């Protein structure tokens, strides 16, 4: 029932209508999926299932942090412009190799930034504070203390130091850190497998060649699939099913067996054809966590658990389905991947200035679609009006703004938080 | 030379030192790669290579936008509470199917939201404004005009209407729109193939088991590979090469043959071992577009064209390489994928309040790494200090803030633009 009315008729009290906050609270209580081991090269975007401690120190040898000369600091004590210290240059440290000769009292070795400190040396004199006398001797015009211009073993990362915490979503720079400490593999939470099902007698698969009269192409399977991928989920079965209880039950049964999450759209309107609920009743042990959310649009949202599996019922209207996915299903998928505070530290948000007034009706949180424009870093959010059945308005919107339940609208110029439908 | 000094010694004038703005300007002038055809299902994140016009109208039949009765509007003219119009109900429109009977004068057909308007009907009376008299008749208590509560053919998307423009990076909602108009395939720009090469005598591949003294694990190949993937590029060859001119030339030659872009890191410091420039000199027809950028860090950046191919030389310091990648290579990869205004409409930015003062030296743009924290949507940017050779600081940073050339630092509390290293 892709286009069932989402009118304002009251939802019967016996139904489990929840607030948006209650839904997010439930999602946050879900346990992550089990852990698996992946190579560090493939770990970007995955979520750590364990704290990572450094199996080796960085650096694992004392390194020069400046171009100059490796010396024994005591040989430079008291050195100055007027009374430079004279040192014999016994060689040059090559990058990536141990020095061939130790630095003994009265001697120095040329060393590049990053070079390995020779035995005997305990500091580096910057080249700026030296004068070559001849090919084999320099004058040092400023003293150094032991450790000056040297990164000691473990100065950057100590052996056994905790460098990254469980629950961290790995970014490219975190992968770099893992590479630096010699990690080849890392334990991360498994990504959820997601089945996507659209129901409705009027719905045909988008690839249908000649559209029969009365039918419309399904949109939600494509949109939801793209959103699932962006949220780190793995898309499995994608299917369009007619409003037939037995068929829907069979499809759901198969989908639940092979996936962690099933996302249904359509059929969940609190109305004449509430197939999703009827299907759930056929699964023993299924637990209806929410039947309706007090937001507009999105009222007919369903959330159920079936053992370890999760079933979401989204409104059939594509715009409503996108909003509900962004607000609840995305945090759920992130949470299953082990992200801490999914839905709390919502990263896909922008602050923007409202371009026009948004009227709103007291009594239910309004999720109003907006388009963003960027004028030299200053973001403006323009409400996208038009019937939510209109497909053309779908791609005009970048995200939504929430007008809270007890607010009667927002004025132009207000700074608002825009929840993005997708990563930019 | 991963850890060559990026000191402050002046760059000789004959070198092609550019400002950050000049680099971005050059990148913006690059032509996108050729187009290819992909299925709409796989099109999310890709960039349109042509305007898309609707091959069919949406809806392709007149649809009810409310639950109610399909009627001939003239039959309701003058109807009201006191004088309702009496209509015979001749049937019910089923979802997804043409009506079986036409609506003749004096009759009506029950119709659900989204149902197909029967022949003869030109409006829908909302169920709220009707009263059933018996099973076969209703009273209409409010008149409708022709077209009321009906979405006409093409009202949402007209046949031949331009719905999406060339250069648009397709988001899930755009894919939904393409599905709605029956597109199965779409022309998008090809994604660039990117080779990643790290040079330096002290560098060993990250997966090296026992780290020899004087050597460090390569980090840049892993970080750059993750960043390339995030920017939509396809990672090809990944290689670590010693500072050997002939070997580097051979590796670059192979990489240029099989990729659109080669990203070298290390070896590009304007210093003693400027292998990248020497390698470029061995390729006839290579054009050095930039040898140095007036930002800190990032000074030793190289940009060259070799026919259709692009070569970037990044500084060897991982933190510097990340900054240069984010500022220039990422916009370049986006531009090759056909994104308009890459580097101008930079979407991976956040406004944040600076937590501490940032001192800066007059005369060069400072790119200062910051970590972000989020307190109820209010972002704070905290500068990450510490030697840029320190790997441990790498993963503490979320992005960078630019202190412009002629500004001597930024004060705590300033609202700054943070350029993110990666999508959150």
TrEMBL record, chains A, B:
Instruction: Tell me, in a sentence or two, what this protein's role is.
Output: Catalyzes the insertion of molybdate into adenylated molybdopterin with the concomitant release of AMP.
Print the keywords alphabetically.
Magnesium, Metal-binding, Molybdenum, Molybdenum cofactor biosynthesis, Transferase
Residues annotated as transmembrane:
none
Asked if the record carries the keyword Transferase, the reply is yes
Q: Provide the E.C. number(s) assigned to this enzyme.
A: 2.10.1.1
**Which protein is depicted?**
Molybdopterin molybdenumtransferase
Give the molecular function GO annotations.
metal ion binding; molybdopterin molybdotransferase activity
Record has Calcium as a keyword:
no
Q: Which Gene3D superfamilies match?
A: MoaB/Mog-like domain, MoeA, C-terminal, domain IV, Molybdopterin biosynthesis moea protein, domain 2, Molybdopterin biosynthesis moea protein, domain 3
Pathway of this protein? Cofactor biosynthesis; molybdopterin biosynthesis
Please report which protein family the annotation says this sequence is part of.
Belongs to the MoeA family.
**Family matches, as InterPro entries:** MoaB/Mog-like_dom_sf (IPR036425), MoaB/Mog_dom (IPR001453), MoCF_biosynth_CS (IPR008284), MoeA-like (IPR038987), MoeA_C_domain_IV (IPR005111), MoeA_C_domain_IV_sf (IPR036688), MoeA_linker/N (IPR005110), MoeA_linker/N_sf (IPR036135)
User: Could you give one GO CC term from the UniProt record?
Assistant: cytosol
Give the organism, scientific name. Answer: Desulfacinum infernum DSM 9756
The chain positions of domain MoaB/Mog read: 195-335
Instruction: Note the PANTHER family from the entry.
Output: GEPHYRIN, MOLYBDOPTERIN BIOSYNTHESIS PROTEIN
Write out the GO biological process terms. Mo-molybdopterin cofactor biosynthetic process
What's the cofactor?
A: Mg(2+)
* Pfam families given in the database record: MoCF_biosynth (PF00994), MoeA_C (PF03454), MoeA_N (PF03453)
According to its UniProt record, which reaction does this protein catalyse?
A: adenylyl-molybdopterin + molybdate = Mo-molybdopterin + AMP + H(+)
């Amino acid at each position: 029932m892709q286009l069932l009315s989402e009118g304002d008729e009251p939802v019967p009290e016996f139904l489990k209508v929840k607030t948006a906050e209650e839904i997010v609270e439930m999602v946050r209580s879900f346990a992550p999926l089990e852990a698996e081991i992946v190579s560090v090269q493939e770990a970007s975007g995955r979520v750590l299932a364990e704290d990572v401690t450094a199996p080796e120190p960085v650096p694992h040898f004392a390194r020069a942090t400046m171009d100059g000369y490796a010396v024994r600091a005591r040989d430079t004590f008291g050195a100055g412009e007027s009374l430079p210290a004279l040192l014999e240059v016994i060689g040059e440290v090559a990058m990536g190799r141990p020095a061939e000769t130790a630095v003994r009292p009265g001697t120095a070795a040329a060393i590049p930034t990053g070079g390995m400190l020779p035995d005997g040396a305990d500091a580096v004199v910057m080249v700026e504070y030296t004068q070559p006398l001849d090919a084999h001797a320099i004058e040092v015009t400023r003293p150094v203390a032991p450790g000056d211009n040297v990164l000691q073993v473990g100065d950057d990362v100590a052996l056994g130091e905790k460098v990254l915490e469980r629950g961290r979503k790995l970014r490219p720079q975190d992968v770099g850190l893992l590479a630096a400490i010699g990690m080849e593999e890392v334990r991360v939470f498994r990504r959820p497998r997601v089945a996507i099902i659209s129901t409705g007698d009027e719905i045909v698969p988008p690839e249908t060649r000649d559209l029969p009269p009365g039918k419309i192409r399904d949109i939600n399977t494509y949109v939801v699939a793209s959103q699932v991928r962006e949220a780190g989920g793995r898309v499995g079965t994608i299917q369009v099913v007619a409003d037939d209880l037995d068929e829907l039950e069979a499809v759901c049964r198969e989908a639940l067996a092979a996936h962690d999450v099933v996302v249904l759209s359509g059929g969940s309107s609190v109305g004449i054809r509430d197939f999703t609920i009827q299907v759930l009743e056929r699964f023993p042990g299924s637990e209806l966590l929410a039947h309706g959310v007090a937001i507009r649009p999105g009222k007919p949202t369903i959330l159920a658990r079936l053992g370890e599996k999760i079933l979401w019922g989204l409104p059939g209207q594509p715009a409503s389905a996108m909003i509900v996915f962004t607000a609840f299903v995305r945090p759920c998928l992130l949470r299953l991947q082990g992200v801490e505070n999914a839905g709390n530290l919502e990263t896909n948000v922008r602050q923007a200035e409202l371009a026009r007034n948004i009227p709103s009706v007291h009594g239910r949180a309004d999720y109003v679609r907006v388009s963003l424009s960027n004028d030299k870093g200053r973001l403006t959010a323009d409400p996208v009006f038009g019937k939510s059945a209109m497909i053309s308005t779908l791609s005009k919107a970048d995200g939504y703004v929430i007008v809270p339940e007890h607010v009667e609208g927002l004025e132009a110029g207000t700074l608002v938080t825009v929840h993005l439908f997708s990563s930019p």
